[in-house]
Amino acid sequence: MFWNKELECMDREQLRELQGQKLRATVRKVYENVPFYRKAFDEKGIRPEDIRTVDDVRLLPFTLKSDLRDNYPFGLFAVPQSEIVRVHASSGTTGKPTVVGYTARDISNWADLMARTFTFAGATKDSVIQVAYGYGLFTGGLGAHYGAERIGAMTVPISGGNTKRQIMLMQDFGTTILACTPSYVLYLAETMEEMNIDRSSLRLKAGVFGAEPWTEAMRGEIEQRLGILAIDIYGLSEIMGPGVASDCEYKQGLHIAEDFFLAEIIDPDTLEPLPYGERGELVITTIDKDGIPLIRYRTRDITALHPETCSCGRTLVRMEKVLGRSDDMLIIRGVNVFPSQIESVLVEIADVSPHYQIVVDRVENTDTLEVQVEVSAELFSDEVKRLESLGKKIKHEIQSVLGINVDVTLVEPKTIPRSEGKAKRVIDNRKF
Amino acid sequence: MVKQISVFVENKKGRLARITDVLGKGGIDLIALSIADTTNFGIMRCIVNDPEKALKLLKENDITASTTEVIVAEVVDKPGGLAYVLGLLDKADISVEYLYSFVRTPNENALILFRVEAIDRAVKALEAGGVKLLDEKDIYDI
Predict the structure, then answer these.
(1) Considering CB atoms only, which of A377, A409, A411 is closest to B66?
(2) How many beta carbons lie within 10 A of that of residue A179, not counting itself?
(3) In A213-291, which ranges are E strands?
(4) pTM for this structure?
(5) What's the pLDDT tens digit per position in A375-392?
(6) Do B15 and A409 touch (CB under 8 A)?
(7) Could you tell me which chain A residue has the CA closest to the CA of B97?
(8) Per the CB < 8 Å rule, is B62 touching A380?
């Protein structure tokens, strides 16, 4: 099923024309309205009129997540604040979040893109869509919500958590499409089994799952346990939120909404563009956004692009499931976690930089994060209660910075493996 | 007052064996020993014949350790012996962080090791109560 067949199945040459047009407009807009970009363009000696076709995008400078932080909160907005109708934010490497702003037109376009995604999953105005992504500064909840309403589906804005209630409403309302993280839907399936609720008591047909990396094996498990179609959805708040790309029923990669987002793959070391099919870092230029247009935003997600027309008939380029990152960011239960956030807490408490290691795992489909801290002579106390409260203090401080539950283990010095004197900071035991 | 060595021990198989091996190979004699354990870690506390050397050995082997001043008191080895000593501390409003006893040959007075917050006040209170306190020299001769 298509939401906008003309755009989704557009001839690729024609699409390039459209992208070129939108790119030129975006470049002019940011040059005129965003001092950060004017300076970056000037430094590279680039004038907006130098950008003629979509291929010229590679002349432009990159934008990093840290650029959003350095211009916190609204420095990269391209419109006066009075034009902004909503902000969202995601956590950054330090205490300050990265903030994005949307104009009324952005919100409407976003709703359209999410409507497209739900249509990929088979949604119509007769559907009942339960949005179990968190509502708030996180883009998941409201992004999915507006898309579901745009289709005209009956939208259930239940937000995350309260699993038994989720199941009850799914039964009572006849929910046909569920939107949440893949780990949460598996937890939901387990809870149903514990409560002896048969899936035949649900009308669920499909799910739109994203906001964290997941494997084909997890998809198989979700589809089999609930008897539904599981669609993978990709997005990031800096670019828009959910709806940047999504699977169709053929699951041959996520179709990027190229009429809004110009996608490139680069070598993260040389920063040179890579051809279709090669794996590298995904870089996105928003070519139809007013609030905060971003030029060549480095997503840090590792993937490859495939331009061949999909079995569904869509010509939109397909990106492979994201299975890695080119930086050290971890996604734990949908939350962005940087090791440096944990390190800064430890430095503050210990007054020195202790050796530590972050161990990530997935236990019963839920991500776990353990921080192991070596007990140096400075941290050591002869008294059990002092050491225990040290562990608790570290735990609470990290939790308040990250906003997710962590376990802290005190370990003996030199037990964390080091290579060339440097400790390996992150052990990720999750299988992607 | 006597110097006690405290060692951080991770709750993992073989850790205690390694620590005692380091001390043993260095010719350190363990005179008294106690282990406090929690679900996540333990603290091994001991009195040794040469605390300075023991601490050096442990540090060289990347084992976290520290020294703590503790009180060692001779307690009459009969019912009520320990209660009398603890009563003296209680009356002086001194709380005990932890204590453990020494292994000694039979028929002698028991030796009890105390860790308290207010160590100087505790010494005064115990001595005023007629309790014999041992210093390092007495201990290393055991």
Answers:
(1) A377
(2) 33
(3) 229-236, 241-246, 254-256, 261-266, 280-286
(4) 0.73
(5) 988 889 888 888 999 999
(6) no
(7) A383
(8) no
For A5, A298, A350, the CA distances from A340, given in Å and listed in that order, are 45, 19, 15
**Option in A391, A409, A413 nearest B64 (CB):** A413
Query: Which residue of chain B comes nearest to A415, CA vs CA?
Result: B62
Cα–Cα dist A210/A230, whole Å = 10
Q: Tell me which residue range forms the domain holding A380.
A: 331-428
**Span A327-367, pLDDT tens digits:** 888 888 888 888 878 887 887 887 666 788 999 998 888 89
How far lies A137's CA from each of A97, A100, A241, in Å?
Answer: 10, 10, 11
B101 and B121 in a common domain = yes
Taking CA atoms, what residue in A is nearest to B68?
A: A382
B97 and chain A in contact, CB less than 8 A? yes
Average model confidence (pLDDT) across chain B: 90
Identify the CATH number of the domain in which residue B134 sits: 3.30.70.260
pLDDT for residue A63 is more than 60: yes
Per-residue buried b or exposed e for A180-196, using 16+ beta carbons within 10 Å of the residue's own CB: bbbbbbbbbbeebeeee
Residues of chain B contacting A411 with CB distance shorter than 8 Å: 10
In one letter, which amino acid is A291? G
Residues B82 and B46 reside in one and the same domain: no
Please, which pLDDT band fits residue A209 given cuts at 50, 70 and 90?
A: very high
Identify the CATH number of the domain in which residue A402 sits: 3.30.300.30
Q: Which domain holds residue B10?
A: 2-68
